[in-house]
Design a protein that fits this description.
Number of strands: 30
Structural class: mainly beta
Order of helices and strands: EEEEEEEEEEEEEEEEEEEEEEEEEEEEEE
Largest sheet: 4 strands, antiparallel
Distance between the termini: 16 Å
Strand order of the largest sheet: 1-30-29-28
Amino acid sequence: MDKPQIILHVQKSLNYTIFDAKWIPCSAKFVTLGNYARGSGALQIYEVSHGDLKLIKEAEKSKAFKCGTFGASSLQQRYLATGDFDGKMAIWNLEALEAPVYSVKGHKEIINCIDGVGGLGIGEGAPEIVTGSRDGSVKVWDPRQKNDPVATMEPGEGETKRDCWTVAFGNAYTPHERCVCAGYDNGDIKLFDLKTMSLRWETNVKNGVCDLEFDRKDINMNKLVATTLESKFHVYDTRTQHPTKGFACLTEKAHKSTVWAVKHLPQNRDIFMTCGGNGTVNLWKYNYPVSRVAKDSDEVEMGVPGTVQLVQNTVLSTQPISSFDWSPDKEGLSVCTSFDQMLRVCIVTKLKTLG
């Protein structure tokens, strides 16, 4: 019992399909996003208090919500950016949910995924939001500019458009450096450098990419985890890029089903949770190799992958775990959602023992 345990703290059944849940920074509250059977959007705010979940506020909107992020907001405002089924990106003041403080019809089809950077006192540079859509495009928005994205990555004339399932910011360690990684339904992963506005790296992992996350957004790129259909995830060491081989990669099988999501522990970038289509959550620790860099036969530097160790796992649901979020403020506190319309708050103990 000296290793971390995953404890179900409280669970609640809701009357809509939940797609995403995010902790509100500097609080014991989180927001849930989803859709009612009638097709409208659900946005609810819950507070964890005395071992129970209290509904603080809720709003129903005309279109279903798919995803949300606080990543581009200041800690003072804590505005939530959302993507909906109609291709609209909106930013909400949670104190006044009548109308968004910003909204743009960003995509022709559903926004599957969203991420934010430059807010919450983390990292450098402007506040930006990235959205990925079924229409095949990935767009970067600056909330201070109305209507037009500051960058658009989309298929060229005559190219097949792929459904973008996941987006992630990274490399935001100076005011000028920043990249966006996008994963698609055909297994493509593309890394766009926003400073040079160019495609920096791409690969294909043969299965649809469900989720992508850098271990930290606000440092020189270190590690990137990609989760996929067919029960695999891939960990890329993004510190060293070889001109032809790209990034060193470790591939692991997990959950015996689709790996829906990955989230790194905010207090330790080498610990992360993956969520499975079979209703399980797995806690992993990444171990670095003795040396992260080797030289090929031409004396060119290339990365060396590390290993992962499964620290703990537990079954939470009979349905896929659709989203997971660690509390940025209380180590080990987490919220997850699943397709049985259940909301669960879990506590992972003894994380300090992992070093």
